[in-house]
Automatic annotation (TrEMBL):
Residue ranges of domain PAC in the record: 78-129
GGDEF domain: residues covered: 295-428
Species this chain originates from: Kushneria konosiri
InterPro entries in the cross-refs: Biofilm_reg_signaling, EAL_dom, EAL_sf, GGDEF_dom, Nucleotide_cyclase, PAS, PAS-assoc_C, PAS-like_dom_sf
UniProt protein name: GGDEF domain-containing protein
Residue ranges of domain EAL in the record: 437-687
Residue intervals of the PAS domain: 3-61
Signal peptide: none
Top-level taxonomy: Bacteria, Pseudomonadati, Pseudomonadota, Gammaproteobacteria, Oceanospirillales
Length: 696
């Protein structure tokens, strides 16, 4: 069991202390077993309530609970004692500690620890009462002394009375030899001489007066012991008696509980790495320490490649194990005071205090990337992944945690845009590109309303190349300033921003509307984005497109990529079955480029598969590419699935595909994408160029 799990178990199982977290307004967010034991409420009854419900009505009316939070907010900590209410209406005397928790000087909540000290208070009051009684009623001293002795020896607080003149110990309620077995604490192992020597040393340094409160940390055979000591000069009618009273409590468990809460607030629960909050604090502290030499501070953001795929296909337990192993592997390469943190689902961050120059940061990034590519053994699965990295070094213009994170994130975005598994260093042009993407996103929001989006149609032919069986709809954007914007540029923006949902629904209706004017034997193919599968409305969008245009469902082909089946696969397969039930045809695009292509052919009855154009481009020169094409076409015949070869540009490619028995062809050789008004004439003009004999 790792340290974080031990901390959690400690907090949840402690029954001597009520430990819970509050938001900045005092609402209860978490609740341990001790809190249930003291208060009488189970977690379901109290979570979401304001902590003032435990105070007396008159205290609530006076605003005392909020005054405590205000004091903790102002001073960092507030300690108090007072009567508190249980669920059954009974009251107990409570010792309360409220610690304020901040994130970069922003209050994010409070940690509250409550201990029932009703008995302890009563016992201490009995001690004081017994002392006063003994002074006032000397005739009953003998009987009162016996009573006092009984009380003293049955309270957990160690009570010592010392003669300040010669250091003699006049009273001791118990020590290591005389302590009851059921009252054993860390303090039990500390002798009185050891305690007094340490207390005297602290008092001399603080120039303590008649009363003082000390907090001590001492070594014992059982570990570190933390104590709270109240010292009082004993007075008689306002005159010092030359004697000093020491009341010593063991607060080790309370301190441990507070340390656990602090650890949980600053560390990732899964990997036990620092979280974003602690990472930010360390970054800002390093920047302030090295202010004259900011360029020594570097930051890397690391994003795991294909983690969502692994998590969805193999399960969250395997995904969690992969994250832990990745964290451990990355730590192996850190030797110069770097801080590795987990700041998101599959995103890590690295603070580098000795980044001499960009090359040093790049060398470290490449070392981590190479290490991350080594396969991981996860239970019975052997998994290979990688990381993309973005890096930046601090400067006079980039001198805060937020700026470093933003710049490193821009570099990481560029690394993933360039193909993942690589490293990019931040440069100012990346910020400009980000602004351009934002501008493009803003323009894209108005593109539909301004009728700037339009569709081109590329013909699809049967294997003979003579019969046009339909067209694939391809989206384009005519920007008023930039001109024609490539879909490779604006489709990812549409997907990331959610605009693809509205654009995709428009494309479905527009393509079906155009196809309604074609002959009944010609089909229209429309591409679906993985983002469209995130909502159930996709099925309604397709049904609406069929209804408003009147096109027969069998004439609509919906093209998907393997990524749709990788992401939340069962959910998406259910949607595919619902689409199939409408009567439309489902096409698997870019076949052969994904992770488990053959597996998907078993998971869903596709009507057609499209061989990725990369194989068609190389099939005349590469035996491996030709073998893949041959295998796919043969498999299509066996499974009675149509097979379309896309990217056919040369007559010899067409001849070879005809020889291999591919069922449909698509590519520039047969027809380029064109406007709806031009496609029929373009396909007619291209007939004479489609066969290798015509070209020879």
């Amino acid at each position: 069991m790792d340290s974080d799990a031990l901390y959690r178990q400690l907090v949840q199982n402690i029954t001597d202390y009520a430990i819970y977290m509050l938001d900045p307004e005092g609402t209860i967010l978490s609740w341990n077993e001790g809190a249930r034991y003291f208060k009488g409420y189970c977690a379901e009854e109290i979570l979401g309530q304001n902590f003032s419900c435990f105070y007396m009505p008159e205290e609530r009316s006076s605003g005392l609970p909020m005054q405590g939070l205000a004091a903790a907010r102002r001073n960092g900590r507030h300690e108090a004692e007072g009567w508190r209410l249980r669920k059954d209406g009974s009251a107990f005397w409570a010792s309360v500690v409220i610690d304020a928790i901040h994130d970069n000087d922003r209050l994010i909540g409070f940690a509250k620890i409550t201990r029932d000290i009703t008995e302890k208070r009563a016992q201490q009051q009995q001690v004081l009462k017994a002392r006063d009684t003994a002074q006032q009623q000397s005739l009953e001293l003998s009987g009162l002394y016996a009573f006092l002795n009984t009380v003293l020896h049955n309270i957990p607080t160690r009570v010592l009375v010392e003669d300040e003149a010669d250091g003699r110990l006049l009273l001791c309620n118990h020590d290591a030899r005389g302590s009851r077995e059921d009252a054993q604490t860390m303090m039990t192992h500390l002798a009185n001489d050891t305690l007094l020597a340490r207390i005297r040393s602290e008092l001399s340094q603080q120039h303590a007066g008649s009363s003082s409160e000390l907090r001590l940390k001492l070594e014992t055979p059982e570990g570190i012991c933390r104590l709270k000591c109240l010292t009082l000069a004993i007075m008689d009618d306002g005159r010092a008696t030359g004697q000093r009273l020491y009341l010593i409590d063991d607060i080790t468990e309370e301190h441990t509980a507070q340390a656990t809460i602090r650890h949980m607030a600053h560390h990732d629960a899964l990997t036990n790495l620092p979280n974003r909050l602690l990472f930010g604090e360390r970054t800002q502290s390093l920047l302030e320490t090295l202010e004259p030499h900011l360029d020594q501070v570097g930051m890397l953001l690391l994003d795991m490649d294909n983690f969502k795929t692994i998590n969805d296909v193999l399960g969250h337990q395997v995904g969690d194990e992969l994250l832990c192993q990745m964290a451990a592997r990355l730590r192996q390469h850190l030797h110069h005071g770097e801080t590795l943190a987990r700041i998101g689902g599959d995103e890590f961050a690295l603070l580098v205090p000795e980044a001499r120059d960009d090359n040093a940061l790049a060398d470290l990034a490449h070392t981590l990337a190479i290490s991350a590519r080594i396969p991981f053994q996860l239970s019975e699965h052997r998994v290979q992944t990688g990381i993309s990295l973005g890096g930046v070094r601090a400067s006079r213009d980039i001198d805060s945690f937020e700026q470093l994170m933003r710049c490193a994130d821009l570099a990481l975005y560029e690394a993933k845009r360039q193909g993942k598994g690589r490293y990019e260093t931040f440069h100012p042009e990346l910020a400009e590109l980000a602004r351009e993407r934002l501008d493009l996103e803003n323009d894209l929001r108005n593109a539909l309303a301004q009728q700037e989006l339009f569709l081109l149609y590329q013909p699809i032919y049967d294997i003979s190349g003579a019969h046009n069986t339909g067209f694939e709809a391809l989206m384009r954007w005519r920007h008023p300033v930039r001109g024609i914007v490539s879909p490779l540029e604006f489709i990812p923006i549409a997907e990331n921003s959610g605009l693809i949902l509205e654009i995709g629904a428009w494309a479905l209706v527009e393509a079906c509307r155009e196809a309604s004017h074609w002959p009944d034997d010609q089909r229209i193919s429309v591409n679906l984005s993985p983002a469209q599968f995130g909502r159930q409305a996709l099925v309604e969008d397709v049904a609406n497109a069929l209804a408003v245009t009147g096109i027969h469902p069998s004439r609509l082909d919906l093209e998907i990529t393997e990524s749709i089946l990788l992401d939340a696969s069962q959910h998406n397969i259910d949607i595919l079955h619902q689409l199939k039930a409408l009567g439309v045809r489902i096409v698997l695009d870019d076949f052969g480029t994904g992770y488990s292509s053959l597996h998907y052919l078993r998971s869903f009855p596709f009507d057609r598969i499209k061989i990725d154009q990369s194989f068609i481009r190389e099939m005349c020169d590469s035996r491996e590419a030709l073998a893949i094409v041959r295998a796919v076409t043969g498999m299509g015949k066996s499974l009675e699935i149509e097979v379309t070869a896309e990217g056919v540009e040369r007559p010899e490619q067409m001849a070879l595909l005809q020889q291999e028995g591919c069922s449909h062809l698509q590519g520039f050789l047969l027809g380029r994408p064109g406007l709806a008004t031009d496609i029929l004439s373009q396909t007619a003009d291209a007939l004479e160029f489609r066969s290798p004999h015509a070209a020879s």
